[in-house]
Amino acid sequence: MNPAKSYAHLFSPLGGEGGENYRAPGQLTFLRAPHVPLETAALKSHGAQYAFVGVPFDEGNIGKPGSEDGPREFRIASQEYLSYWFEFGVDLDGLAVDCGDVPMPKVNPDSARERIYRAISAVLEAGVTPIIIGGDRSISIQAARALSDHIGNSNKMGCLHFGAQLDLAESWAGETLLSTCAMARITELQNLPAENVAIVGPRNAMNPKDYIDLAKARNLRFYPMFEIFERGIDAVIGEAVERVWNGTDAQYLSFNFNVMDASAAPGVTSAEPGGLESREMIRIADAIGAKKTVSVIDVTELAPVYDISGTTSRLAVCAVLRIMAAIARARGQLVDPNIRRSDLVAVQA
Amino acid sequence: MNDTASGAWRHVPHQLRGPRQHIGTDDHIYSPKLHNGTFKSQGIATFLGAPYCPPDRHAIREMGAKVCFIGVPWDQGQVVRAGTSQGAAGIREASTQYFPYMFEYDVDLLTFFNLVDCGDIPIVPGNNTKSHDYIYEYLSECLHGGAKVVLCGGDHSVPIPGARALSDFHRQGRIGYLHVDCHLDAAPDWAGNAFTNCSGPSRALDLPNCNAKNMVHMGSRNGLNPKDWHDFFVDNDVRLIPMQELVSRGVVECTEEIFTRAWDGTDGIYFSWDTDSIDSSCMPGTTAPECFGLKGREVIQLARTAGKFGADIMEVSELCPQFDASHISIKTACLMICHFLGSRAKTMRDRGQKP
Questions:
Q1: Which residues in chain A are closer than 8 Å to B301, comparing Cβ atoms?
Q2: Which of A53, A173, A323, B100 has the smallest C-beta neighbourhood within 10 Å, fewest atoms?
Q3: Could you tell me which of A241, A300, A250 has the C-alpha nearest to residue A128?
């Protein structure tokens, strides 16, 4: 045995900190952004506004598997877009970097959760907004905990969650960190007041009675789809955004992508009829962007195996880019409207 | 569930038996405590995990079942693509991803209705007449057992024996008939066969106690509607709400209208709901998918509104899981039933009625 050579790749992973998933992706990046290591110092010196972080973890799911392939397909779908968005007059190029995926150990969910927490903490330390792509919904528990700890108890955070399920199980089969427990854990964070929580889109029969009971006990405001049918998306999202941004120092924005109607997003772990239409998601992006700031964005439960035509990943990318574009416009980060293609030709000549 | 008389309705899902038993009475409407419950760990697949009940009037009465789910794996009564014989299996499969509790109505569908799954009706391959006779007999058992029926097709010829069963059940009175479908289905016959999926409304009007004024068709559109089908509604003065009218007036108002008409002076109604009434983007897994149909939220609103009125037999037909690559159609079909029953339960509870 040559002591200078590594033989670890010949064997099953040893586990613990060394056991990486051999199906790790390569260098494909979100919106062709530069890759920057997932370290606070590197992110700080780059000066980006957003860091894309994939979290290929689906050991918190209770139903259909498949969300661990979400980050990969999200990156691929992002190649279909350009950085210039004419509706907003902005250029997203240079705003984001891609930190790759958080390396996930298999069959060690405790270690995985700590890695997620540390990764998101590192991004927040750099003053950068993480754009997290799951992975199942349980990853939000760790990311929200990271945000809560990052701002500390002297500051307040808000949480705006979109999803067909309330995810308010105190515990599920004795476990407390599964996707079904996500909002139960997040709303326990000390610096997240109930009046700054809004949940948009719950519907249908995957919301057991204890979810509703806990929502009432904790005074959590949720906006069921039936309410959106009655009031329209603009009224509901306007009210929800006001709740979350009102007097808060940080905002956690979370999309379980099954908030979309099954026809708009068939490629999720639990596609649900009666959800949001794509044009409503665009209105939502505008409403969020108008607030100029968001601390964390996550998109979870994408399941490419059911996304036969790739439309779900595309819509998810579009929603995130639109939020980025709307924020850029609200901050006045506009492209000079007088630039013309002929100017480039003139420079080249 | 305190009634422990032998044969009485009792709900203990297969998955919750064994060494690791959930023991609370209402465990099935709460997040599971000991293991993942019915999620992933499937037992014998029944609709929403409901107990099995033999399709027999005495057994149904003894169990006190007020709603029977029953499947019809029949797809040889139709003229388009096959595959709808697997529809009921698809709905049962989709229902394993749901709780019987619906927060929109604060109701447990299982215990409110003593819901049971009566399995599938046996059919005879290649013999539409015999298969229809069996459907008639099995539905008659459910009705005489004192239950309402959720009938899952199967192709859209099943309302022919279905409405016949209801007609005979209410032979002293009158029945109404609703047909929600992309297609008008009003052929006198199709190549000489009068009992295909093209003739539901035509055969319903043949029944001795079903008047034109208690019949409505809703959701018709597009180019698979020959002229004789349309002529039927004009010539017999049967109310027709094409898709364009539904879009203009809204699904709730139109649904209220059709149920009000069907229930006007009748003793019971047959509600036939073809999955191709739904837009092909939401319902790719159907026999004849069509654009310009109901959106997902309109499906749920239709089911909710229908539940306010109720029906003796609610039928969901033409579901084809084999074309449902992303499993969205089976979930939609499952929810058509869940929202109908949920809304029905809430309506009855608000009025102080029992099923």
A1: 229
A2: A173
A3: A250
* A205 chain-B contacts, CB cut-off 8 A: 98-102, 335, 338, 342
Higher per-residue pLDDT: B40 or A75: A75
Instruction: Quote the ipTM score.
Output: 0.86
Q: What is the pTM of this model?
A: 0.90
Minimal Cα–Cα distance from A174 to chain B, Å?
A: 5
B279 within 8 A of B288, measured Cβ to Cβ: no
Tell me the count of A-B CB pairs closer than 8 A.
121
CA distance B126 to B212: 32
Strand order in the sheet with B313-317: B116-120, B67-71, B148-152, B313-317, B268-274, B175-180, B210-220, B239-242
Best of A165, A206, A236 to substitute, by most chain B Cβ atoms within 10 angstroms, is A206
Helix B296-309 and helix B251-263, axial crossing angle in degrees, nearest 10 = 30
Q: Is the pLDDT of residue A23 over 60?
A: no
Within chain B, how many helices (H) and strands (E) appear? 11, 10
The pLDDT of B316-334, averaged and rounded, is: 96
Structure tokens at A200: 């948009």
**Dist CA B284 CA B327 (whole Å):** 9
Q: Say how far apart CA B310 and CA B148 lie, in whole Å.
A: 9
Q: Do B296 and A275 touch (CB under 8 A)?
A: yes
Cβ-Cβ contacts under 8 Å, A202 against chain B:
103
Residue type, B200: G
Least CA distance to B107: which residue of chain A? A209
What lies within 8 Å, CB to CB, of B259 at 6+ separation is B178, B269, B305, B306, B308, B309
Buried b (16+ CB within 10 A) or exposed e, A83-99: bebeebebbbeebbbbb
Q: Which residues contact B168 (CB under 8 A, 6 or more apart)?
A: B140
Chain B interface includes A176 (CB < 8 A) = no
Residues 16-75 of B with CB under 8 A from A: 26, 29-37, 39-40
Listed residue (A135, A153, A235) closest to A192, CA to CA: A153
Specify whether the CB–CB gap between B200 and B155 falls below 8 A.
no
Question: Considering CB atoms only, which of B36, B295, B327 is closest to A271?
Answer: B327
Cα separation, B289 vs B328, in Å, equals 14
* Confidence class for position B105, pLDDT limits 50, 70, 90: very high
Say which DSSP state B47 is in.
Answer: G
Residue A6 tokens read as 């590594």
Question: Pairing relation of β-strands B67-71 and B116-120?
Answer: parallel
